[in-house]
Amino acid sequence: MAQCVQSVQEFVQDSFVPMVAVLCSEEAERVTRKNNLNFAELLRPFCRLTSEGHIRDPSNQLQVVKNLRICVNNLVTSPTTTSTSLSPAQRQLLSDVVSSCQPQESAVTNVVMAGDYELNFSVTTPWFEAYRENFLQSMPASDHEFLNHYLACLLVVSSTEAVPVEQFLKLSQEQHRIQHSGEYTNPKWFIPNTLKYYVLLHDMCEGDEQRADVVYEDMKQKYGSQGCYLLKMNSRTFSANVDEQIPDPWSQYLHKNNLHNQFPHNPCTSSSYFSGCINSGTILYYVRLFMANLHNLSAVHTDLKKGAKDSNSPACAAGSHGACLTLNDHDYIRQFIQEFTFRGLLPHIEKTIRQLNDQLVSRKGLSRSLFTATKKWFGGGKAPEKSISEPKSTCGLLYPPEAPELQIRKMADLCLLVQHYDLAYSCYHTAKKDFLSDQAMLYAAGALEMAAVSAFLQGGASRPYPAHYMDTAIQTYRDVCKNMVLAERCALLSAEILKSQGKYSEAATLLIKMTSEDSDLRSALLLEQAAHCFINMRNPMVRKFAFHMILSGHRFSKAGQRRHALRCYCQAMQVYKERGWSLAEDHINFTIGRQSFTLRQPEEAVTAFRQILINDSRQTAKQQGAFLREYLYVYKSVLGGNEVSLPQLPLPCIHSSATRVYFGHERRLAEGEKQAATHVSLDQEFDQDLSAMWCHLEEQLVASANGGVVPVNFQPTQCCLNSQTDNLRHPLAVVEEPIIVEVTFRNPLKVSLALSSLSLLWRFTVDGSSSSKEMTEETITNEETSAVGVGNMNKYALRNCDLFSPFRNHMDFLLFTDQQTLDLMVRGKQDLNILGPRLNLTKEDKMSVRHGPDRRLNPIITAPMPLMEVFFLQFPTALLCGEIRKAYVEFCNVSGVALCGLRVVSTHAAFFTFGSQATTPLSPTSAENCSPYKTVATPLQRASEATESLVSADDFRQPSGVIEIPIDGSILQPGQSTQLPLWLRGPDQEGVHEINFLFYYESAEKGLKISHRVLRHTVFICASRSLSIQASACRSSVPPHHCLDEKGSSGTLVFIDVENINTNEGGVREFHIVQVSSSSQHWRLHKYINPNKDKECKLGSRERAKLCFRAIFSEHEFHSSVSYGSQGSVPTENRSSDLTDIAKECSELDLNIIVIWKAYVVEDNKQLILEGQLHVALQTIGKEATSLTAKEVPQEMVLLKFKSDLPPPVILPSAEFCQLIKTNLHYPETCTHPFVQESLCLVPVTLTLSNCSLAQVDVIIDLRHKSSSPESLEVHSSFAWVGQSQYKLQLKPKEVLCLTLQACFLQAGVYNLNTPRVFAKPSEQSIMCETSQQTATPALIVISNA
């Protein structure tokens, strides 16, 4: 349970105090009303004695009475009978008591650490203490116990009465009539001979003090000095000491509001009742007043009417209490209470105890003292015989007032009231046995209850607290007697006692058992106290605390205590929040929202409903829709018509880190034949490797523009910022260019949200300004999106465009939106707060969670910059390897600033080059300009000799990769555009190639914050196979005197193998070798050795051609070419980058071979001619070079597979398959050839194929194989098969086929012709097997030099 202001002993002791009634004359009541008090209220602050009292028990032992408090009440009669439950008026009174007592904002809070829970809640519960105190004091007097019965009656008469003694007599007779006439069941009296104490009240301001003393002397003579008292009061006058401050001890006992505010519904409370000077009263007093006489307030009503005569007095008008009393009067009242108690009340109680003891002893025939009673008497004798006609009740036997058992109970109650707990326990224990033996269960439960209280209050005694007595009493009250009022009192006492002993679990169990459906308020308060018991245990039970707080809040809500219900739910929320209890958390937040809205706390209601929506709820879609409607309704009521300051919207959720910011215009789409540069767009996903590649290209461009040095302050251009880019610096935006912000929304609910009028809000700070301000639409224009619906995850690009001031701006972007569901629509905003990367450098960063800055939403606006757009015309998507194609590129300056320094760099520098602007045709579609070469007539010389041209040494320098774009004047004015031809050459490797261009340009104005701008473009080219070129060089063996070279140099022989590896891809029919050129600083092709004379070289599919040239050394730098036919081709553009871009420095040979070809293609029933060139770099004599680079085959990912039981069997070809075909070569055994005149010797060879089977056979003959058998290694193998390199045939059963081949020899020697590989299979089979004739005896041929 929560902590209380009083200790447990003080609380229990103050729950049972002697009761004293007050009966005043009308004149005495008038005297006291001067202080806005009646006589009982006047005495209440002084009813606790500060000094000790003494009494003697029946054994003449002196007992000390400490800290005694008496209860003084006005005597009010009531004909009502006692009830086992509270009446509606009583319930309402207790409800108002609890409602009026709310937790203070500055109340002490307790922080409980239990595991990873940190709970903060109020230490005390004053509303529960107020309820408990009012409940205990409002309990009606009952017949089975005497604790609430009056022991004495104060008869008060004013000294201003004509004959005070007669007034005392009238009051005495009135008291006797009330007690003994039988007309009234309430109030109840302890004994028939009630103590009457006569009080003479003297007003110091009005009465005659001497007369008062005379009257008092007569009273002492008549009633004795111990039975009367003269009380002087009202010593203070208003004419003097006006400014004197007198303390007001009544304020803590009297309620600040009048009774009308507490009980407006009670019919007994008339308007005149509240019109008197008593405009306030204590809750405790009025509770007793109403419970004692709820339906008959005539006496009080009469007294208040009499007091209304003085309603115009200064004291009454002042509204304060005790205004006519001085501090001496306070002492007089305190002395009066002490005299009454010590000289009147305690002696009367002592006398009554002795009389009861004597009666009990005489009736039982036992000894004179209860302490010397025998064990038989204490153990209880035989039950007294009762007549059949004695009354019964549902609780058992009803005793008459003179029954000995009730006398024992009276004696026990008196001992308890004067703190004689040992004797009280003995009496209660004895009475309990008698009651149980008579089956008087109500009396027995009361005796058990008070026996347990007496045992606890003994303090320091060896007797432990009998908790089982309390449990039995509670069960009897509740289940047998059906009296929940007494059961509740018993539970309240026992729970406090158990709590004081640290038995929080037992106390919580007891409180929970007392909850029921008959009283929501009682159940709520007890459940709250049970929750406090769980949290105050040695090992706090946090979840039980929260669960019972939820139950308490629910019952508070049913009882109409909304503030207390809200407090309970808020305290429980500390346990359930962010713990994974999503459904419980939703319920708590929903309840908090509703209670807050009902209590007119709309902001708290919005916060609670917001929590339901932003969490990942597991509610059904219907329930989520209900939550959303509640939130929107509350939100709309909070917003009202004021939309100046928009509150935050919880939905949809913004994935802030995924926000992307794009600076600049969006890419223009293709227009007709034009293809715009791809650049950067929001549709492209960020790739770290690509970003590094673009950064490297930009560094090359910047270095080229700055003399080969990259500036120290260089920062790569970032057009689109996201979570993976470097956002530590403020991005730079350009005036009059848009800023596009892409926001990612997530809808955590299962219901759709309709959003409309989405726009961006910003804050603009002018450079040098001390404060930020909201800019008008003249500075920044904004585009709104149309209405959209948000499902699970959506992205929207919000445009915030056209900033017209070239100042620095600090832009805190917000999202402004309309949100609606069904018929509710609200307006609000959401902040775009982006956390930077987590810091992990210092120790403090690693020990805590710190984030760096992210400034992607805080751009700096700079001065105008040029803006260029690039378009491509006739740009192909597919090329043959080495194919040369002409396209056009157009540069447009779409800004108002001139641009210059136009450059470009690419990842494939050999892919393109720019043509001259002078040769650019007016119409790009002119067919005559589509060829990259000029066709010219060759000079009059031998066809086999080469055409030579000298070139400068500068043309052989390796290009840097950065190309300056040749435009007129090197400046592109605003609105100006220009076109340039762009020569493209297909990549040497087949496949799809990604080629990236980065264009660079600067502003004509220098000193701007942005030094340059770049434009990206990415194309994909599909390269198809064309020709494969293999070249090798060897020293010539021709004697010097046979050489026609004027310098006498024997030279070097260059052999070039050209193979058509295109398999009719792209409709290619055949290739023509147009020209072979060389480019070298010291070597040149001098002569073409052509065995077919001037026959044109044509290559069909899979055909090969072998070319032989003589190259000679020279001191000059040459470009030479050998043409086929009568015409030759030279490059249109005299730019050596097309010819020497793959040349590499070598030590022995520096010869670059360029083979120019034409391809005849059929496309859409039209024949086209494609042109291209392939390059081979010969570096070392005797080492073969090829135009095809080795293709890297990526290692495939090995997928996880279940291991099979048995591996699949390996199927080997059978012997019959290997004997399907027999082969035979027919050729001359010897051949003589003049190698000096003709370098190549061609020998015809016939290959005979015989089908030995009775089935149709598919045959493949591959001539590219070079034998590696041991026999063939002994003979020369440097020959080649000329012509088609592969044949696919089909032989019928028993068919013999002869195939004519040609073998080409370069020098004399012995050669093995048995190199063709023959594969055969039956037509219906899928396995191709090589025949066994491949490994037969070598077929040798001898070649001699003539």
UniProtKB/TrEMBL annotation:
Q: Which residues form the TPPC8 third Ig-like domain?
A: 1018-1176
Q: What is this protein called?
A: Trafficking protein particle complex 8
Q: Where is the TPPC8 C-terminal Ig-like domain?
A: 1220-1321
Question: Could you tell me which residue ranges the TPPC8 second Ig-like domain spans?
Answer: 881-1015
**Entries under InterPro entries matching the protein:** Ig_TPPC8_1st (IPR058541), Ig_TPPC8_2nd (IPR058538), Ig_TPPC8_3rd (IPR058540), Ig_TPPC8_C (IPR057651), TPR-like_helical_dom_sf (IPR011990), TRAPP_III_complex_Trs85 (IPR024420)
Output the superkingdom of the source species: Eukaryota
Gene from which this protein is expressed: TRAPPC8
GO CC field: TRAPPIII protein complex
Q: Which SUPFAM superfamilies match?
A: TPR-like
Q: Where is the TPPC8 first Ig-like domain?
A: 683-787, 823-880
Say which species the protein is native to: Astatotilapia calliptera (Eastern happy)
